[in-house]
Structures are given as C-alpha cells and as structure tokens.
Design a protein that fits this description.
Strand 3 and strand 4 form a beta hairpin. This protein is α+β, with helices and mostly antiparallel strands. It has 2 domains: 61 residues, Orthogonal Bundle (Arc Repressor Mutant, subunit A); 74 residues, Gyrase A, domain 2 (2-Layer Sandwich), CATH 3.30.1360.
C-alpha cells in the first residue's frame, strides 16, 4: 500500500501545484488513501520531494531532479502492467496507452527499471512516449511490455 500511495503522491505533485501538506493530504484522501500528516511528511522525506517558490511568490512541492535517485523500492508491478492498455512502436519510439490518469505513475515505474536502452519517458494523462537508443532497442522494449501484459 505504501508504494501505491507514494506513486499517487508523485502523480499528484506532478499534476497539480500543491502548496501545503494539508492540500496534499486532502488530494490523497480524495483518491481513497487514509493518510495522516505524519505519513505524508515521511513520504515527502523518503521521496526527496522539495518545496520551491513559484513566480507568484508562493511555494509548491516539486519532484526531485532526475539526477537525484529516489529510493522508493518501486518495481514495475503487475498493477502498473494492468494499467497499460496498448503498446506500439515506430523507429526508436515506444507509445504506451494506459488507463486514464495512470500514465505518470506507470512512467515513474518504467524510470525505476533503470533500463540502459531507455533514454527517457514523457507521460501525459493516458499516454507515455518512451524514447529508446535505437530501433532494435524499441523492438526489445515493446516485446518486453507485451510479455508483461500477457503474464497477467
């Protein structure tokens, strides 16, 4: 449950300008997570989430820079695999379609796989674009996601 909650927390921070822990707690509760301030505070610390000023003079939570590894213990789980609706690729680009609102969480899971063939991911609401090193890598990655989807 902790990993799922932390994925949702990362997703919320990437989607919304969240200024306070209270706002974050409210959004997590709206999404079905019964959390306390202490739990959210611990998650923020573990995920290395920071606060930064906005152009409006307010503060908001931000995700750690990519150069700072996040030790969430996250693995690409069957829950993430079940979120993937389709996989396709062209040249060195893999396109994953997910259930609405889940692309960001799945992309975080893909990034946590630390696959050297993957240069990076860009996630929208229900679509992830995965850029691989070359077309051969894209074929291998797409096949891997197809295999994962067939295992569930």
């Amino acid at each position: 449950m902790k990993k799922i909650r932390q994925r949702k927390l990362l997703e919320l921070i990437s989607q919304f300008e969240i200024e306070t822990q209270d706002e974050l707690i409210s959004r997590l509760r709206e999404n079905g997570f019964a959390v306390t301030q202490a739990t959210v505070s611990r998650d923020i610390r573990e995920l290395k989430i920071a606060k930064m000023t906005t152009g409006k003079g307010t503060y908001r939570y931000v995700l750690p820079r990519a150069s700072e590894p996040i030790d969430t213990g996250m693995k690409f789980t069957s829950t993430m695999t079940e979120s993937i609706v389709s996989v396709d690729h062209a040249c060195n680009i893999i396109v994953l379609k997910t259930s609405p609102g889940l692309a960001n969480a799945v992309a975080v899971g893909i990034d946590s796989m630390n696959m050297p063939q993957i240069l990076g991911c860009v996630a929208g609401d229900d679509t992830i674009i995965v850029v691989s090193r070359d077309e051969e890598c894209a074929n291998q990655i797409a096949d891997r996601f197809h295999d994962l989807m067939n295992q569930i």
